[in-house]
Amino acid sequence: AHMSEPDTLAYSASKGGLVALTHALAITLAPDVRVNCISPGWIDTGKHGPLKASDHEQHPAGRVGRPDDIAAATAYLLSADATFVTGEVLLVDGGRHVRR
Hints:
By secondary structure, the protein is mainly alpha-helical. The protein has helices at residues 9-29, 53-57, 67-78; strands spanning 37-40, 89-92. The radius of gyration is 15 Å and the shape is globular.
């Protein structure tokens, strides 16, 4: 939803739909329910072999993401620290979306 690659029209549109659904649900269910979206970037789950230095260099954070990064973002949104956060899309991509 935040950046696209060639020939990914349906995939990109579906991501945009999730962003729209997030803010529509947030306003519809407020104030009883908070609705947020986590938009992960490249997360290494270990299923695709070893990563190269060039993979990590694509991210301003200096590395590809890990599942723990998404878990931490989820824990934040579920915590008392985020009770004033609703209708937001939290990009957890190591800054990759700003590299274009």
